[in-house]
Amino acid sequence: MTDLTSRRRFLKMGGAGASILPFLRAMPASAQGSDTLVVVTGATINSLDLHRTGTSRASYQVGINCYDRLLTFGAKEVPGNGLSYDYTVVEPELAESWTESDDGMTLTFRLKPNATFWDGRKVTAADVKWSFDRAVSVGGFPTVQMKAGGLERPEQFIVEDDETFVIQLDRPSKLTIPDLAVPVPYIINSVEALANATEDDPWALEYLHTTPAGSGAYKVARWNPGEQLVYERNDEWVGGSLPAVQRVVIREVPSPATRRALIERGDVQVAFDIPDKDASELAGTLDVFSTPVENCIHCLCPNFAFEPFQDPDVRKAIAYAIPYEAIFKAAAFERGLPLWGGAEEITDIAWPRKTQYYTDLDKAKEHIAKSGHADGFDVPLSISLDLASWMEPTALLVQEALGKIGINVTIEKIPGANWRTAVLVEKRLPLHLENFGGWLNTPDYYFFWAYKDGHLFNSSNYRNEEIEALVDATLHMPMDDPEYAPQIKRMFEIALDELPRIPLYQPALNVATNGAEGYEFWFHRQLDVRVLKAV
Amino acid sequence: MLAAAPRLRAVLMRLAQAVPVVAGVVVISFLLTRALPGDPAVYFAGVAADEASIEQTRVAMGLDKPLPVQFVHYVGDLLQGDLGQSLSSGRPVATDLANRLPASLELTLTALFLAVVIAVPLGVLAATRPGTWVDHLCRVLVTAGVSLPTFFTGILLIYIFYYLAGIAPSPLGRLDFIYLSPDHVTGFYLIDAALMGDWETWRGAAEQLVLPAATLALFTLAPIARMTRAAMLTALSSDFIRTARAAGLSGGTVLYRYAFRNALLPVVTTLGMVFSFALGANVLVEKVFAWPGIGSYAVEALVVSDYAAVQGFVLVMALLFVTLNLLIDLLYTVIDPRIGFDAQ
Predict the structure, then answer these.
(1) Average pLDDT of chain B?
(2) Which segments of chain B does DSSP mark as H helices, in order?
(3) Are residues A117 and A216 in the same domain?
(4) Taking CA atoms, what residue in B is nearest to A38?
(5) Which one of A7, A140, A258 has the shortest CB-CB distance to B171?
(6) Which residues of A touch B200 (CB under 8 A)?
(7) Which PROSITE patterns would you find in this protein's record (chain B) (predicted)?
(8) CATH number, domain with residue A359
C-alpha cells in the first residue's frame, strides 16, 4: 500500500468534490473542516491484517474500522465517562438476522442482501466461510480466540446459499455469539484475496497484510508504518449508521509529552491511550474519558512454585499488608476502580469485585506469625520494563509494605521482550505483577485463563480441583441458568480465599478529546473511529 | 591503468580492506542478536497464544533450526541482497531501511550543517579572542549543549516554540498530515519536493525539520566548537604563524589561509565522529518529534528481538561508516596535500 499508493491514486481515492483531502496548502492544521479528525497514539500499527503472526495490538483497529463482522455489540452510557460497548446487547453488523436451533448447536445467519465489498461485489456466505476458515487455520492468536467461542474447524462453517451461513457447534456455549463480535472473525473479500494468494500462502497473508479487502465503514487510504494511517469513509457501508467523519488520520507519536502538547493545543482531536498521570491532569481542561477496563485486574501474584507462597497465611499476610490506596494513587492516579475493602460475603456475580482485604498491618503480622515463615524470607518481585509506568510505583510500595512484615523484597526489572516468556510461558517468577484482561466479559472466561492450571495467564502455577471443575462447568453455561450464579460465587470464594492472584485495582483506558465527540470504549481497547464526530 | 591513477588505486584498496570488516560485522551481528534475551516466538505468537501456537510461530520463523543452519540461510539471502523480513513491521528489512534511513540522514545532516555553521566560526572567534565575551559565550553554549540531554532540549523547544508561542508547526514527524509526502526519489523530503517543484511541501518539510534539527545541533555543536577552538589555538601559536606575521602578511591571510587550514584536519575528524555518533544517538530526538528514523526503528526491533531488522540495521550502519571513513580520508588529502594515501 505504501509504495503503491501514488499521489495521483490517493487523490482519486479522496473522492469527488467537497471531500478532497485538506492537503490544500493554504489551510492551517487547526482550521481543517469537520470532515477530518486527527488522532494521536503512541503505539505502532504494523500490519493491516489481524490474522498475521506478529500483528501488534494497535493494528487490531484496522480489523474493527475496515472490516465487518457478522455481529457487533450495542452501546451504553457509562456515568461520567461517555459511552461504552454493551456486552449484553448483541446487534447485527453484516448479518441481517440470526437464529439458534433449539439444542443451541446450530446457528443460522442471514446476511444483509445489500452488503457489498469496497470493490462493489456482494458479500456472500462463501466469503464468510473463507474468512472463518482462515481464522481457525492460520494458527496463533486468531485461532486461539476462535476456539474460545467453540469455533475450531472449517467443517463447522457451512454455506447454505449466497445469503445464508450456518455454524455447527460441538456443544452449545454462551461464548459463541459474543466471540463472533470480537475483532478476529471479520469478513474478507475472498475473491480478491484468493486472486492474490499463492501456493505457499493460500490465505493471502502477504497481500492482506498491506492491502485490506473488506466491506467496512472505512477504507485505508494511506499507510506509512511507523508514521500514520489514513482512513477514508466507505459511503456504501451498510453495517451500521454511516460515520459522520469523512477522513480520520491516525498519527503515531511515541512521546507522551508531545502527544499531550498536541491535544492541549487542539491540533489533534483525539489522544488515544494517554498515561494515567496526563489523564488526571488534563481532566480539568479537556474531555477525558477514563473507562475502567472490563474484566481486567492489575494483580500481585505469589507463585505457588515458590515454597513460602504455598502457605495460605503468607498469602493472606501479603494481602493485608499491601497499601492499596497508596498504590491506586501513585500508580493509577485514581483512574480506574479500587478493588479492596469489600464485603466478605459474596452476593452477586459481578467481576472484577472488591475483595474482603484492606490494609491492616496488625492482621498481616498475625497471619505471618501463624505461618511457617514467621521470621520472614527474601523474595524478588518481578516487573516488566514495558509496563513500568504502573508496575514500578506499585512494586516500590509493595516492597516497602512487605518489609514491615519481615518479607525482604528486591525488585527485579525484566526487559519487555523477556517478560512474556518468563511470566506466562515459563511461569518462573516467584512474586510478580500481572494485568490480564479478558475480551469476553464473563467471570468464568477470566477464571478459565487466569486460574486454571497450565493456562497462559495463570502465572502463579495455581491448581485447585474445585476451581478446575467449576470453570469447566460454567464456561459454556448460559448466564441465566439457575446453576450458574451459585457456582460462580463459589469460584470467587475459593479464589479470594486462596489468593493466587491478589487484586490491586481495576485499570482504566484513558482517552482525551479536544474537538471530537462520540468516543466509545471497547473491550479490545482500540479506537473505534466509526462513531467519532467532529465538533 | 591503476598505477597511473594512485588515488583510484588507493580507493579500491580501501574498499577491499572493508570486506573483512563487513564480513566480521555480519557474523557478530548474527551471533549477538541470537544472544539477546527474550524469545521472539513467544512475543510474536501474540497475547493469548498457547504452547502449540508458540511452537507453530517458532517453526514459521525458522527458529526451530540449529544456529549454523540459520546462519547459512541468512548469509545465502544476504548474498542475494535480501536482508530478510522484519517481523514487527512485516515488510522486507531493506524496504524499511530505505524508508527510514533517509529520514535520519536528512535530520542528522541538517543538524550537522547547522552545528558547523555556528560552531566553526564560534570556535575560530573564541580562539582569536581568548578570555573575551565571545570565548565565554562559546563556553556557555558548549557546556549547555553537552549537559542538556536531547530529549529534554527537544521537549523544552516544543514547549516554548509550539505550545507557548505557537510559531513552530505541530511536532508530528516529517510532514504535517495536511501535506502528502513527495514522490520517493532520494527519500530526502527536501530534495524530493524540490525535484517535483512542490515548494509548499518543501516548506512544510523544512518547517518540521527546524526544531528537531536545532535540538540535535545544540548537542553536536559542543565537540565541534571545542575542537575548532583548540586546534586554532595550537595553530595560532605555531612557529609558522609567527613567521607569517613577521613577514607582514595581513591578519586575514594569516588566520584563514595558514592557521585555519591547518586547524581543519582535527575538525574534520571530529565531524566524522560526531556524524556517526549523532546518527545512532538521535533516537530520543526521533521519539520526541515522532520522527520515523532509523534509530527508533532499531530500538523497537531490539525490544522485540526482531533479528532480521536488528541485523539489517547493524549492517547498514557498518557500510555507512566504512563509506564515511573513506570520504573523510579523501577529504584529508584535499585539505592537506602532504597526506598521501601511500602513507597509510
Answers:
(1) 85
(2) 6-35, 40-45, 51-60, 67-79, 93-128, 133-147, 150-157, 189-196, 199-236, 239-246, 251-252, 261-281, 283-288, 294-303, 307-335
(3) yes
(4) B177
(5) A258
(6) 25
(7) ABC_TM1
(8) 3.10.105.10
- In angstroms, the CA A182 to CA A69 distance is 8
Q: Which residue has the cell 541485523?
A: B311
Domain contains A284:
no
B178 and A29 within 8 Å at the Cβ level: the answer is yes
The verdict on residue A280 lying in a domain is no
What are the cell numbers at A155?
467443517
Tell whether A160 and A188 lie within a shared domain. Answer: yes
Q: What is the pLDDT of residue B48?
A: 61
In-domain check, residue A293:
no
For residues A318 and A252, state if they share a domain: no
CA dihedral A231, A235, A236, A237 (to 10 degrees): 60
Q: Hey, are the CB atoms on A257 and B158 less than 8 Å from each other?
A: yes
Interface A–B counts its CB contacts (< 8 A) at 171
pLDDT at A434: 94
Q: Which cell is A51 given?
A: 490474522
Nearest to B292 among A57, A226, A417 (CB): A226
- Name the maximum alpha-carbon separation found in chain A: 78
Beta-sheet pairing, A520-521 with A337-338:
unpaired
**φ, ψ for residue A419 (rounded to 5)?**
-55, -50
CB atoms within 10 A of CB A483: 11
- Taking the CA atoms of residue A451, residue A452, residue A455 and residue A457 in that order, the dihedral angle to the nearest 10 degrees is 0
What is the least distance, in Å, from the CA of B114 to any CA of chain A? 24
Q: How many domains does chain A have?
A: 2
Query: Inter-chain contact A418–B57, Cβ cutoff 8 Å?
Result: no
- Written as one letter, the residue type at B40 is P
Kindly report the CATH number assigned to the domain that includes residue A175.
3.40.190.10
Same domain, residue pair A522 and A490: no
Task: Tell me the pLDDT tens digit for each residue of B278-289.
Answer: 887 778 899 899
Does residue A444 sit within a domain?
yes
A463 in the same domain as A409:
yes
The answer to whether B37 contacts A418, with C-beta atoms less than 8 Å apart, is yes
Shortest Cα–Cα distance, B41 to chain A (Å): 9
* CA-wise closest residue to B220 among B293, B276, B171: B276
Nearest 5°: CA angle at A424, between A441 and A377? Answer: 115
Rounded to the nearest angstrom, the minimum Cα separation between B37 and chain A is 6
**Please, how many CA atoms are within 13 Å of residue A284, restricted to the half-sphere of its CB?**
2
ipTM topping 0.90:
no
Quote the domain boundaries for residue A127: 7-12+34-274+512-534
CB contact (8 A) between residue B290 and residue A418: no
Q: Do A415 and B37 touch (CB under 8 A)?
A: yes
- What is the residue-wise DSSP string for B146-158? HHS-HHHHHHHHI
In the block, cell 509526502 appears at B181
| Site from B43, B47, B91, B289 to mutate, A interface, most A CB atoms within 10 angstroms | B47
The residue among A78, A464, A44, A444 whose CA lies nearest residue A252 is A44
- For A243-275, how does the pLDDT look when each residue is reduced to its tens digit (9 = 90+)? 999 999 999 998 899 999 999 999 999 999 999
The minimal CB distance from B290 to the residues A144, A225, A258 is found for A258
Q: Same structural domain for residues A328 and A187?
A: no
Q: Which domains does chain B have, with CATH numbers?
A: 24-79 (no CATH), 93-335 (1.10.3720.10)
In chain A, which residues have their Cβ closer than 8 Å to the Cβ of B309?
Answer: none
Question: Distance, in angstroms, between B88 CA and closest chain A CA?
Answer: 6
Residues A518 and A383 in one domain: no
Residues A105 and A149 in one domain: yes
**Chain A residues closer than 8 Å to B304 by CB:** 416-417
DSSP A59-93: GHHHHHHH-B-SEEEEEEE-TTS-EEEEEEEEEES
pLDDT tens digit sequence for A131-172 = 999 999 988 788 888 998 999 999 999 999 999 999 999 999
Using DSSP's 3-state secondary structure scheme, residue A8 falls into helix
